[in-house]
Amino acid sequence: MNKPLCVISAPVDTASGYGSRARSFVKALYELKKDEWEVKVLSQRWGSTEWGYLKQHESEWGWLTELLLPNNQLTRQPEYWFMVTVPNEFTPIGKLMNVGVTAGIETTICHAGWIDGVNRMNLTLVSSQHAKSVFQNSQFEERDQQGNVRRQIKLEKPVEVLSEELDLKKFFHIEPKDMPKTQLVESLNGIKEEFCYLFVGHWLQGDLGEDRKNVSGLIKLFLETFKNKKKKPALILKTTKVSNSIMDREDILEKIDAIRKSVGGNDLPNIYFLHGDISEEEMNLLYNHAKVKAMVYLGHGEGFGRPLLEFCAAKKPVIASGRSGHTDFLHTEFTVLLPGTLQNLHRSAVVENMLLAESQWFKVDQSAAKKALEDVFENYGKYTDNAKRQGHHARTNFSYDKMKEKLGECLSTFPKQTELKLPTLKKVELPKLPQLKKIEQ
What we know:
There is one protein chain. The protein has helices at 17-33, 53-56, 58-65, 112-120, 129-137, 183-189, 215-226, 246-263, 280-288, 306-312, 366-378, 381-397, 400-411; strands at 5-10, 38-43, 80-84, 97-102, 123-126, 140-143, 149-153, 159-161, 196-200, 234-238, 271-274, 292-297, 318-321, 336-338, 340-344, 360-364. By secondary structure, the chain is α/β, with parallel strands linked by helices. The chain has a 6-stranded parallel beta sheet with strand order 2-1-3-4-5-8, with helices on both faces. A 6-stranded parallel beta sheet has the order 11-10-9-12-13-14, with helices on both faces. The chain has a two-stranded antiparallel sheet with strand order 6-7. A hairpin with a 5-residue loop joins β6 and β7. The longest helix is centred in the middle third of the chain and has 18 residues, at 246-263. The mean pLDDT is 93.
């Protein structure tokens, strides 16, 4: 009997968060099932990100190109079908099992189309407990033109948490004496401040303080917190909006300048802006650089939050919003999780079929955030031991091996293809008819 075919539709060739998730997921599944299944990959796009990641990282991911379907097309129906994408795109194709893999949603409810998508699959794997809860709590009524309820839309299929992973081969603690002399490191050495906060993430749509990762709100709060103070830290922003283009960079610089002008004054703390592609190796150097003392995130919501997990490996303090996906791996005793309240999305942040106007997300308490920034800066020593404990917690419980182990548990419950074997029948012999004899007259 031929091996059952397993196809994973995923953006494996893109430099995106979903691309990182997809590659590690494919790797884990392939290692678990390569002897039992024929594993293939259907490469998909992700937003505006370009293809080419696998070729650019051939030494690490060249083996994955061998799994790509010829001409990127299905030639027969797979027994097992996986889709790494947003739920409204989930389409069941597999004979035996259809599985969706998604980071989920950052708000309190998701679009009804996402629930329909999850219900089309046999199983959905999400990145965090927060995402699972959102799917469980999102319920809708579909009505006709007369206002009569046509159907109830609610979760009907199982959803399980498959946490994203910390790649311990790429993200780890580096002592200052062992820091290599790269262009990035030399640039960071040139920063005059000895204490820098770091933010990593996309600057998404939304008015001041209303973009999902709250980059604009962080900048404003940071400037206001340390304005006119004799001793100031700096803030390093590793961010983009849409692409790594010059226009994208200039647009962000204009936004930063506008926020500085809104705060006013001539004695403001410095902000350093990193734009463009940075390799994972360089990201680890950024996390570990001696002048980068802590990571700060005041965002409204995360499906998971990979940069926060990666930063934990550097054994440095983390200040973050106290709600959504990243609280799965940020231990309450070892990090500074900020209080806040749930608030409705601002109209400028609404995204059709994704971030709904009637949903809510988390808004950090501004005074608590300001106090945390000041205290970590002024009393850094009291946070370092817990930062080391958080690093151990992340490495121990959120490694690639832990993710692979959990995936193996999920796969063990899948139905198996069996070969149809008919019983061997004994030869049936018909009774012999008596011979007829002619009667002579």
